Amino acid sequence: xNPTALAxxxxxxxxxxxxxxxxxxxxxxFMAMGVVLALxxxxxxxxxxxxxxxxxxxxxxxLVASSNxxxxxxxxxxxxxxxxxxxxRPVPSGRVRLAIGYIEWIALGAAGIGLSFTLNRxxxxxxxxxxxxxxxxxxxxxxxxxxAYLDVLTESVNSPIRLLLGWFALVSDRIPPLSVTLAYWMAxxxxxxxxxxxxxxxxxxxxxxxxCRSSFGHYSExxxxxxxxxxxxxxxxxxxxxxxxxxxxxxxxxxxxxALAAYYFKLAVQPDSPMQDSGRLxxxxxxxxxxxxxxxxxxxLMFVRIPVxxxxxxxxPALTDQVDPLWIIGPRQR
Length: 334
Fold this sequence. Notes:
CATH architecture of the largest domain: Orthogonal Bundle
Strand content: under 5%
Helix content: 55-70%
Structural class: mainly alpha
Low-confidence stretches: none
């Protein structure tokens, strides 16, 4: 194939790669919480063979997520054409044939779900749940993305679903604690709500915002900020239940989490916020460094036991007989 024909083929195929948003696959890092919980519950899973199912799990989740992204791009095309930035996307700019786009949507979903069931039934059902939420969020007459507040809650429910995917990739005979699952949902709602706030502020005109997204017709900056407060409080409450009942050492992570939320909010309210483009968010070096350090602190605390904390708070250690930590700080308690 000559260079001209190759360039022409690439220009025709590339828009379909773009609407699959492979560059958003790093969001599957949200599966890591489920993996960490599974390793906390089953320390024997620390082994090289564990990498094989995890690799399959990440690929399957990515394919299902891309299927949802394709559907989102196809159905949002007419409204995206009114958006000052999104109008340049492949669908509103006319670079995607809708029939081929819908074939791509079905093919990616079928491939992801089919691959998911090669791991186990629970993982497969979770993958179906992730794909189904794409329908709930995007397809009329439900199309929850057009409903104020419900848009954030239904999009962020993908966070606990990804937690389940990470968990079921390794543990298939039980489910993770409800408290941490709900905390993960509410934390996801906080981050998604912050993204909504950044987008609303970026558009600048309430009428244009409402034309781009119906839910914006019911929002104001004050409403969005108050919703962030509700979501962060709910996340803290549910996480507190998990911490007290399962692993008190994580109380040392609380100030780290609060600072990370504050940093994220700061980015959301900046002029020309990087929230609207995941690629730009990845260029926020300080934020990324703090996020990695915060995640490291969380993981280390998950596998440490600090007996003095239980004495200070007057709480009996939980799961001591079932799970041995990697190391203990202070005298061992039984």
